[in-house]
Specification:
alpha+beta, 4-stranded antiparallel sheet, globular
Length: about 120
């Protein structure tokens, strides 16, 4: 029985770590569009449950980071978000959602029109 509890605890830690990392990479990708004066992108591969963060740096150098969504979450969202250079705005109300069935939670990252900022919401399911 203790092994099962440890396994659930480990899975919860992994899930929390993924969500924190996703949020940091999301913000970083948006900020790099402003700092580097180049568009940046988030590419979501729903079937693979994988998210790629693409940043075009100085001298056209592309930096790609990817995150795999843990099995404890089910991710949904747009296939691609482009953050505009200089402003970091994406121009629409895109939303990434992660369903965490074990905790009966839906974690949403909803972009705001105009400001380019996002709001994080946690809802009970």
């Amino acid at each position: 029985m203790p092994t099962l509890a440890i396994q659930r605890w480990k899975q919860a830690i992994e899930t929390e770590q993924f969500l924190a990392t996703f949020e940091k990479k999301l913000l970083f990708t948006q900020q790099m569009a402003i700092v580097n004066s180049n568009n940046t992108e988030i590419i979501f591969q729903e079937q693979e449950q994988k998210i790629n963060f693409l940043i075009l740096g100085f001298e056209e150098e592309v930096s790609e980071n990817s995150l795999t969504i843990p099995d404890s979450l089910q991710g949904t969202g747009p296939n691609k978000i482009i953050f505009k250079k200089d402003t970091g705005n994406n121009g629409n109300l895109s939303k990434y959602s992660f369903l965490w069935s074990a905790k009966r939670q839906l974690i949403e990252f909803q972009f705001q029109l105009g400001s380019g900022r996002y709001v994080k919401k946690i809802k009970k399911t």
